[in-house]
Amino acid sequence: MQSKMRIGLYPGTFDPVTHGHGDIIRRACALVDRLVIGVAINRDKGPMFTLEERVEMLKDYTAGLAEDTGCEIVVHPFENLLIQCARDVNATIIIRGLRAVADFEYEYQMVGMNRALDNTIETVFLMADARHQAIASKLVKEIARLDGDISKFVAPEVEKRLLEKFTG
């Protein structure tokens, strides 16, 4: 008897993708057979990078991970409700990364709403590795804008793209 494929959805804006995101992606791959990275369009956040740029950076960032982890990785842009995106990609698990207690409060509310919308989709929280708990895309952009060293927080391709945004 063939077992059902475990599909997880890891949503975010990824503006830009950081090593913190990469840590969650790698660890999520141990839990599922296919990991869909949902790139939120979210116009309210006013992302620095276009949707196409964020999708491309994620594809570059995860290129070797599928082979390393044995997990199929798909990058999928979405603009609808998270729970609807999960349904669209047949995910039974939503994966969320947590950095701090402040993250948990917001995420706790989201889980409650998502469970009310569809109680067949579980949410799994992965605590960020201690080395990555302070990394936030917003802070990385601020450090780059002020000409600080962001090489510890993002991949070289992402660093290059960020610096290009600030130097024109």
From TrEMBL:
Binding site residues for ATP: 13-14, 21, 97-99, 107, 132-138
Keyword set for this entry?
ATP-binding, Coenzyme A biosynthesis, Cytoplasm, Magnesium, Nucleotide-binding, Nucleotidyltransferase, Transferase
The reaction(s) catalysed by this protein are: (R)-4'-phosphopantetheine + ATP + H(+) = 3'-dephospho-CoA + diphosphate
**Chain residues that bind substrate:** 13, 45, 82, 96
Against SUPFAM superfamilies, the record matches this protein to: Nucleotidylyl transferase (SSF52374)
Q: Where in the cell is it found?
A: Cytoplasm
Its domain of life reads Bacteria
EC number(s) per entry: 2.7.7.3
The keyword Nucleotide-binding is assigned to this record: yes
One GO-annotated biological process of the protein: coenzyme A biosynthetic process
What is this protein's record name? Phosphopantetheine adenylyltransferase
> Which species does the entry assign this protein to?
Celeribacter neptunius
Taxonomic lineage per UniProt? Answer: Bacteria, Pseudomonadati, Pseudomonadota, Alphaproteobacteria, Rhodobacterales
